[in-house]
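Lab notebook, page 48
Experiment: co-folding of the full assembly
Goal: obtain a model of how the components sit together before planning crosslinking
Operator: M.T.
Materials (sequences as entered):
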Amino acid sequence: MSIEPPKTCTGSCASCPSLQDDLKKGRLALRAGIFQENPVFCQILGVCSALAVTSKVANAVVMGAAVTFTAILGNAMIAAMRNIIPRRIRLMVEVIVIAFFVIVFDQLLKAYWFDMSRELGPYVGLIITNCILMGRAEAYALQNRVLPSMMDGLGNGLGYSAVLLIVAVIRELSGSGTLLAGTPLAIILSAQPVSSGTPHLLRIPIDIAPAQLMIMAPGAFFTIGVLIYIFGAFRKQEAK
Amino acid sequence: MKETVKTWLFLLVLSLIVSVTLTAVSAGLKGRIEQNLRMVKVRSVLEVLNVPDRDGKTDAQLLALYDAKVTTPADMQGVYVYQENGQLEAIAFDAVGKGLWDTIKGLIAVERDGQTIRGVRFYEQVETPGLGGEIGTPAFERQFVGKKIAAADHVLQIIKPGVKPVLSDTEVHGITGATLTCDAVNIILKQAIERFQQSRKGQSL
Amino acid sequence: MDSPAFWVILLAAIFTNNILLSNFLGMCSFLAVSKRVETAVGLGLAVVFVCTCTSALNWIIYYKLLNPETSWIGLDLRFLSFILFIAVIAAFVQFVEMVIEKVSQTLYLALGIFLPLITVNCAILGACLLLIIRQYDFVRSIAYGLGSGLGWMLAIVVIAGIRERLRFSHVPAALGQTGIVMIITGIMAMAFIGFAGMISL
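Observation: model returned without errors.
Model output:
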């Protein structure tokens, strides 16, 4: 198997991409991943889990972490191998690499935060099918070096996590009147004192009538739909 | 031909590296994961039996507490006998069944007399949050304490709120708007209690 | 605890526990392909076929190879489930792609890139994972795979029909394609919740 030299190579040392170049490229990819090319709002990728796990903020945060973890490491591994992956099986290789990191994360979660693993259920395994990861591997990691690919992964992962966070905050607050319920940092909106044994950080004595629909399926769809509308409207304003 | 060989070789090497690493990771974490799985049940059983000195203990300590105080008789699966110094304190048994959306897993604990309820825990359910999901809340579970699991001709039941102002020993209030979940729970309670009573016939616990 | 009957699982998977409207699985291809009813039906049928068959295949793999208690190999290999399941799905989709290409060129061209994308349709992998979690036996797993596929197809065909009609409505530009589909799907999900309890799974 021959390793091909990078396409920029002109034979002299100056043409090899330096760390500086990598970081610069990477930073661009990072920012793009969060804003201009936000995976959920712009590329419409990874919507399944954005809907499924956002009924609680804690779940959304862990899911975001899982996707970011896999995006960074998966992109890194694919970028490192990009010159030796046979073209015909590249999709299968991408899937294998992504599945590998997802399984590692899943095992770690089961071992160190079992309750969260039960909450997320099959959705951790389903990260493998999360279009963001395959999409970025195909569109970026296959053509770029390791460091910029990792930062692209980080950017898209953060962009995705940000969306999940926003949706989850909206859904949990309006649907259950809590934030980060289930963790020691929980904030609970309730006029009655909270039962002992429920870990929480802060109780705000306001009673809101929770809108159950928000924590169920339709609530998720509506929230994302409205957010897309708002996001889209902002982008149109910017473009003017 | 060479292309095909290279392709297969690449795939083989990649799969090998991936499987070996995953096997190593899995083997390393296996013990912890299995313990976590066991701890869910252990914690729930200790809670429903109200075994003292549970607070602030680590998993290992809880496991030791469980092993010391709780036993499952050999021929009675799903029954947990709590003894303090050889003296029978309470018995808990599984209450598992179909809920509205998916399986509901719970435990019912009775006092020494085998009749009075010590506690009820629904530790796993995915019912409608805010409605059926309330069966997992302390407020709902607290109702059961002190009730009896069965009267002469019927077992413990959930009654729709507003139907009966005064509840008997074997009745608790349901949840408004969660009729279907409560119906499902009624079936679960009936099956669990009847199975428990069956298994106790001819057994001196 | 009795396992529900074949028909109960089938109908529940289509209506009350619709894999797309209740479990949110299979959204990506759903959003992309649901613009025309013909393509939606074509893709839907392909998904039904793949989902049913891979549910069966993956059940066999899980219980005969990976699960230490029931397998021919004594080892606990369950951590390999994700990778093996997706590999089976990928291989099967490849097979379906070849068949469609031979049988109907028009459908093949219409589906285009979306055919290989069935591989990453979370609904299929999701159905396989869920039937393992719920510990269905072989026949019931097929019921669940079939029902999930049909439920997904139902959702995508209905949305395609609605979207075809939407062309004549005035949708705010910022909502774009996806925003309005999300809102419609939300309303559909609400409607399907109405089925809850009709079939108790």
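Interpretation: DSSP finds eight helices and three strands in chain A.
Next step: discuss with group before ordering constructs.
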